[in-house]
TrEMBL record:
Protein origin, superkingdom: Bacteria
Name recorded for this polypeptide: Oxidoreductase
Chain ranges of the GFO/IDH/MocA-like oxidoreductase domain: 170-300
Keyword hit for Oxidoreductase: yes
UniProtKB keywords: NAD, Oxidoreductase
Organism of derivation: Pseudarthrobacter enclensis
Classification lineage: Bacteria, Bacillati, Actinomycetota, Actinomycetes, Micrococcales
Pfam families: GFO_IDH_MocA, GFO_IDH_MocA_C3
Annotated PANTHER family: BCDNA.GH03377
């Protein structure tokens, strides 16, 4: 503890709020069609339901501005009437779409986690850049393969951690550089959301660790609250696999699922900074998740879904809400002008070590029925773990797992993940 880690690595790495400054872009390949002609970028989207609807809305905004042309979509389920532009071709799969569509600038993949690796590889076999939803892929082996292929292709790959586009990250960097918080001693990520039974019934991969031997890794830290982990890592300056020294996991579940829904992930960066992520989707009430910087003379709390930063020191309390760069626009600017990516595939390496630690950890420990109450009826019922709010706060503040805190339901122990040499 006491290492002023984070600040140097944040300052030295590609600046999320200062694109075009000292940072090195992942790829400087420019798009000849859009760059030279100013024509709208030709976009394809795989996955039009679920989170794909968010992409459709965003692409609608960019299309109205003349920046993009959504030329084709792929989904085994047809799009809802009127949800895609009439000019967009509709395919049932990405392979068909790619075979039928020339000169794509960007392919967006917003499909179930277990499909990311094959669809991303298919997209990178074209001349298009790739926007790949989080988590990037479901294993470290697939991540390394994708990284090699993307490097060979020269095309940018953006990962959909949209919180990494927040301008609050630059403000945090400035606070650290100015010494407002004193020495940065640790970072915590706290997530307490509510997810009901219907959430786990919406798709066949929901709550799965694998399907027929194919990794899925749909746990609380790797899917619903993955942004909490990714944002904490980014603030700590941990971007690539080389930036992480250790990862420990302690995984539990209150729901009747394969994967974890209530977990502590404890990370130490190679610069020596501890990061503790205490996460659940079994809270009594949903609260927007936050990343806390614990300094020797103050704290900064980043509510990343709201771009809101609260700083408390002896001098008082400040609260500010910031803007955010859109990751699709950033990928287009990367392709046409070499602007650094805000959430590149390479910079998701630290996150992928966490995912691999979760993937290879023992099965999550069920939380005893006596410590779980169910609120609501039928499919709308959701589990609430007794005392979870205080447990998350203490875990983050003290960098302890639930068993180390001595909680009555925490009968597991931390599992140490052997971080491979970078
Ligand atoms: N960035 C975020 O904030 C955020 C939020 C939610 C979900 N996500 C991510 O988005 C992705 C999709 O999640 P979801 O909950 O929308 O999943 P989902 O199961 O609802 O599926 C999304 C769509 O993909 C389609 N699909 C399935 N297989 C396909 C294939 N091979 N080719 C084309 N389409 C296919 C499905 O039919 C569905 O329409 C996941 O990676 C998830 O983690 C990101």
């Amino acid at each position: 503890m006491g290492t002023p880690a984070g600040i140097d690595s944040i300052a030295a790495s590609s600046g999320e709020a200062a694109p075009g400054t000292a940072a090195q872009p992942e790829s400087t390949a420019a798009c000849p069609s859009a760059a030279a002609t100013g024509a709208p970028a030709r976009i394809a989207l795989a996955g039009v339901h679920g989170f794909g609807t968010h992409h459709l809305r965003n692409l609608g905004r960019l299309q109205a501005a003349g920046a993009v042309d959504l030329v084709a979509v792929a989904d085994p389920q047809p799009p809802a009437p009127g949800s895609v532009p009439p000019s967009a071709a509709v395919h049932t799969g990405l392979e068909d779409l790619l075979a039928a569509t020339a000169d794509l600038d960007v392919v967006i993949v917003a499909t179930p986690i277990q499909t990311h690796a094959p669809l991303a590889l298919a997209a990178l076999a074209t001349d298009a850049a790739l926007y790949l939803e989080k988590p990037p892929v479901a294993s470290l082996a697939d991540y390394n393969r994708l990284l090699d292929v993307s490097a060979a292709s020269g095309h940018g790959v953006q990962i959909g951690f949209q919180s990494l586009g927040s301008h609050a990250l630059a403000a945090i960097r400035e606070q650290l550089a100015a010494g407002t918080l004193g020495t940065l001693e640790g970072i915590s990520a706290t997530g307490r959301w509510v997810r009901d039974r219907a959430y786990y019934k919406r798709s066949r991969w929901a709550g799965k660790r694998s399907i027929n031997g194919v990794d899925v890794v749909d746990g609380v830290a790797t899917n619903p609250l993955a942004h909490a982990v990714a944002t904490a890592l980014r603030i700590a300056g941990a971007r690539t696999t080389a930036d992480v020294a250790s990862v420990e996991t302690e995984l539990y579940r209150a729901n009747d699922i394969e994967s974890d829904d209530t977990s502590v992930i404890r990370i130490r960066t190679t610069a020596g900074l501890p990061i503790t992520c205490a996460l659940t989707i079994c809270a009594a009430e949903s609260v927007e998740p936050y990343v806390t910087l614990h300094g020797s003379s103050g704290t900064a709390v980043f509510h990343y879904t709201e771009d809101r930063l609260v700083v408390e020191t002896a001098a008082g309390r400040t609260e500010e809400t910031y803007g955010r760069d859109d990751l699709a626009e950033n990928l287009l600017a990367h392709r046409t002008a070499g602007v650094p990516l805000l959430s590149s595939l390479r910079d998701s390496g630290a996150f992928m070590l966490v995912l691999e630690a979760v993937r290879t950890a023992p099965l999550p420990t069920p939380i005893g029925a006596g410590h779980v109450r169910w609120e609501g009826e039928g499919e709308a019922a959701h589990a609430v773990v007794a005392g979870i709010e205080e447990a998350l706060e203490r875990a983050g503040r003290e960098h302890l797992t639930f068993s180390e805190l001595g909680l009555p339901w925490a009968v597991s122990a931390p599992t140490s993940f052997p971080v491979p040499a970078a």
